Amino acid sequence: MIEVTSYPSLPGKYLTGLLFLLLISAKTLAGPIIDLKGTWRFRTDPADKGIPERWFATRLPETIKLPGSMLENGKGDPVTLQTKWTGSIYDSSWYFNPRMEKYRRPDNLKFPFWLTPDKYYAGAAWYQKDVTIPQNWRGKRVVLFLERSHTETRVWVDQQEIGKQNSLSVAHEYDLTAALSPGKHTLTIRIDNRLEVINVGKDSHSVTDHTQGNWNGIVGRLELRATEPVWFEDVQVYPDLTRKSARVKMTLHNTTGKPVLGRIQVAAVSFNSSVKQSVKPLTIEYGMEGKEAVVEADYPMGEAPLLWDEFNPALYRLTASLTTADQRKEARTVTFGMREFGIRGTRFTLNGREIFLRGTVENCQFPLTGYAPMDVAGWERVFRIAKRYGLNHMRYHSFCPPEAAFVAADLVGFYLQPEGPSWANHGTSLGDGRPVDQYIYDETARMAKAYGNYASFVMLAYGNEPAGRNQVKYLTEFVHYWQKKDPRRKYTGASVGNSWPLVPENEFMVKAGARNLPWDKRPESTGDYRDKIEPFKVPYVAHELGQWCVFPNFREISKYRGVYKAKNFELFREDLADRGMGEQGHDFLMASGKLQLLSYKNEIERALRTPGMAGFQLLSLNDYSGQGTALVGLLDAFWEEKGYVTEKEFARFCAPTVPLARLPKFVFQSNESLHAELELSHFGNVPIPSAVTRWTLTDEAGKALAQGSFGPKPLAIGSNVRVGEINVPLSGVQKATRLKLTVSVAGTKAANDWEIWVYPTTVAAEPTNVLITTSLDEKAEQTLKSGGCVLLLAAGKIEKGKEVAQHFLPAFWNTSWFKMRPPHTLGILLNPKHPAFADFPTDYHSNLQWWELVNRTQVMNLEDFPAHFRPLVQPIDTWFLNRRLGLVLEANVGGGRLVVSSADLSSDLENRPAARQLRQSLLNYMASEAFRPKGEVAASVIRALFTEPSRDTYKPFTKDAPDELKVKNQQP
């Protein structure tokens, strides 16, 4: 079927064309280009004098290299205490805390909030270049193409103003035909990166200093392009798998002022798959009288078109070649994939097969340049890393990446959710009649036109968590608008947390309810999120899952060799050293990293166990450098490993096929049996017709204590495929032991494992040569003075340190952005080879057997202890405070030997086998010759733990950023 729509309506003679088929080459008939990269003249305009003083008619005095940013060229103002940043500062204590005074000095300025740019500038800047238009461009249409400008551009040719544009997502294109005759001309561009132009929200990742930074410049391609006066303004391809065809919609423009006759040849060829296809070309005759016509045709793709998905990302290049009756030629080549992104119940489908989105959020973190990669290789690297970690999806938080990202995602097979470049909050709102309301429609329309053909572009949202009294009405209309306009993807109003109002018309939900771990109760792997998603009848994607913090990686500092410096990391490292723990930084990273990994494993598995859940979006696989420094990634900001997890380890529980075990608990006693229900989550390329599932229970030496298998049985696409149950008596375990349950699918890479702890039901009699007490009373002090041993059980009695909120889970996002909302700690660090743990198998970090010892347990603030003193079990504090903390410690006190535990080693030990076993292990150690503490601590210092408050505590100082540092003009 071929349709031609012309504006205005054409006489019938122009609409009656012949349809004929012929073979043509798919090679693009590209027009001539003048590359504008190189040296430009330049001048900043902080006082906005350039327009009234007609700088476009003068020769600008400085120079700058484009493509690039002012920051890359060393342009801008020095960063000072008075710099007015683009972004919220929720915790302004740094500005007032006396301990931070040395980091506020001009010669040692170190901000904790985000990475620090070499220079800073927000305002107007002018760019100027002389160009020579060749004689053979006479009669051509000439376009200025600026691939990515930040933000508003305003263009002059010589002294003639051409216009202005504002897009954070697509190229700025200006038609300069009327102003550029052959010969020499001066091109002047004014760029303004202030939010007062269009306020999308000062924390939007497209503009804020929390992320890439609010840069000024032009990156990517800078070109003058010449075309014929009849050209393709747009070509969009709409795959139709049912009909094995593609609907091709071509928008033609004509500036000749005359009616035009001609023909269009459409041809597609596959290019990135082992199977090569050249689709039979289609030729269409057309006629147009006005300035614009739309030509649509159904293009048969053959009997067996190649389909695009994450496993086989087959792509086609479609070339539309236009020839006019007077032999003018133009061409447009686009890339597309034959795919259909659909919804079946509460699951997404691709080409009719259910998929599960295992996603991460790209937060606009580009520390070397300050802007997104403009090359395909840069994005392909990121997607391939993410894919090796088992992911298949990426959401772009309140920004849209450049075209290179879509190209790379198409090639790799990765599902994308770009967003309008707005977090309409913190200084603006949505649906209240502000300019951002129309801007979102305009911007998402520009995104759909520029990137709509890319197979990877499967989802779209307005942006992130808006404010606004009328946001539901606005977002409902937004979803309806896009449903009617473009069926190639699915739409939701916004990606939101729990407290945001519901938009019932969303085609899918990105919402925070189905996330987090219920670890205020005993950890298990039986639960899921079905109660959270049950009210929703559309696909539910967990919003920003995870956000579990890890200690800073100070070895990462040397990587910041670009325009941003990790001054925040430097501050945290120096403060840690000031607190006497500088040498422990890497140990804190590794130990907290293992707890972070454990948290992500359990949360992801909980999502995979949830029947009907559509997917999750981590926040995120790599670190987020802003909002107080949110170190929530298993990878650093450069997408590189930190040392405590590998891609293979992570992909055991995050992959297309994942074995799952529903365990009621992870800590057992030897009179119990290990019971587990095994199931599989399988969203692979095809069903497995005859799957055999194997399981083994091994000890730490790798010896199998029990094993078995289920199947063979068919494994269909989907989750919660039940495999079978196992029941293993643990009576053969005679001492405290760590076991591992491993489940795998024979003949595949799919394997997963869980650690189990088994403790004897009885313990030996407590030694008579150790005094057990709950206070440092007269008897305890006398025992110490006489050289005896004392176990001081201090749970619930600590004063110095009671302000530190310790949960088993690590800090969420970070303690600065949420102004010290609990929890404050990042797990524990210990030496597992210390004889105190000889009868309590443990790693150097938190693991699930520590839950009943750590969760909601007091810590001790060791600020009065000698500088070199290290406890047996050391909770890791938030890096914003770096307090030296203890959970269990030993010391020589008053001639005797003392162990103090703020962990509860007394209550309900019958039902707390890990606590009972740690108590036994400590007592065995204290009664042995190995009990020889290295440190000497005064009895008064021990007493102070019970009687004196901590001296150095968190003080918020203010409720907001200092007024003089707030960005003005936030209301447009």
Structural class: alpha+beta
Strand order of the largest sheet: 27-26-25-34-32-31-30
**Shape estimate:** globular
Distinct helical segment count: 13
Distance between the termini: 47 Å
What can be said about the biggest beta sheet? Answer: 7 strands, parallel
Low-confidence stretches: 1-30, 962-972
Task: Assess the beta-strand content as a share of residues.
Answer: 25-35%
What would you report as the Rg, rounded to the nearest angstrom?
32 Å
Mean pLDDT over the residues: 94
Oligomer state equals single chain
Helix content: 10-25%
Give the total of beta strands.
50
Descriptive notes:
The protein is of the alpha+beta class and 972 residues long. The strands form 13 sheets. The protein has a seven-stranded parallel sheet with strand order 27-26-25-34-32-31-30, covered by helices on one side. The chain has a six-stranded antiparallel sheet with strand order 5-4-8-13-10-11, with no helix packed on it. Strands 2-18-17-20-21 form a five-stranded antiparallel sheet. Strand 49 and strand 50 form a beta hairpin. The longest helix has 24 residues, at 585-608. Residues 1-30 and 962-972 have low confidence and may be disordered.
